[in-house]
Amino acid sequence: MAAKQVFDLAVRARLENLQKARHYIDQKGESLGVSESALGDLRLAVDEAVTNVIIHGYGNLDGMVELHMEADGDTVVVRVRDHAKTFDASHINAPQLDTALKDRPIGGMGLFLIKKMTDEVEFLALPGGGNELRLIKRGAIQT
Amino acid sequence: MATLNFMVGQEQGNVSVTVLKVEGDIDAATHKTLQDKAAELIDAGTTHILLDLSGVNYMGSAGFRAIHAMTNMLSGGESSGLSKSPYLKLLNPTDPVARVIKTLGFDVYLDIYQDRNEAVNSFQ
Known about the structure:
The complex is a heterodimer of chains A (143) and B (124). Chain A has 143 residues and is of the alpha+beta class. Chain A is 32% helix and 24% strand. Chain A has helices at residues 18-32, 36-58, 110-117; strands spanning 9-12, 64-72, 75-82, 120-125, 131-137. Chain A has a 5-stranded antiparallel β-sheet, with helices on one face. In chain A, β4 and β5 (131-137) form a beta hairpin. In chain A, α2 (36-58) runs antiparallel to α3 (110-117). The N and C termini of chain A lie far apart (32 Å). Chain B has 124 residues and is α/β, with parallel strands linked by helices. Chain B has one domain: Transcription Regulator spoIIAA, CATH 3.30.750.24. Chain B has helices at 31-43, 61-75, 95-103, 116-122, and strands at 5-12, 16-23, 49-55, 88-91, 112-113. In chain B, α1 (31-43) runs parallel beside α2 (61-75). At the A-B interface, α1, α2 and α3 of A face α2 and α3 of B.
């Protein structure tokens, strides 16, 4: 049986805590030796992921968001865990980048950015309820 | 909690241009204040905005929601198609912000300038 994952940061699911989430990525990334450009990408992907949890996962409900960043060779994995309703990303379409701005719906860019800024994204529905999003960035650490 | 600071200046080129300088991180917690500031300026008669992003080190998709809404407010329902907005232009985005602008395709809709005078004089 896998050891229980210990998450480094747990914050209340409130938009004012986005800055704390970005700060955690900056600090932990720096300690792991993540390159500046990969860190910028991960900061953005995590900010968007936590924003989605707060707005779409919990809605107006209270809850926690947990973050953990770890390195495996030159690959960095960030886990974003929540206890909100199960997230289904399959119905979310990519924004229409070749359409007049006036005709583009406002928003809908978060998941697109998460995918653009990482090499792989895994969505896991947790057995006891909630979700874990794994953001994987390869070549993030210069060895 | 993160907040945004605004500095508003007025420049006269071919038309009167409001230079709105933003300082801070534009995320889902703060983007509405940018949108509200722009709405306040537009309500007061502003027709052309140069958005100075030199003081913004972080901007996520929420920042682009605000910019998208500003573009729509300034155009008043008129569509520029795939050409650039004649009413909203960007000045001096930092490298990380410039990268996201390109990733989201906003460089197709908005002119980006490094020089304030050149930007002001580009409005017609």
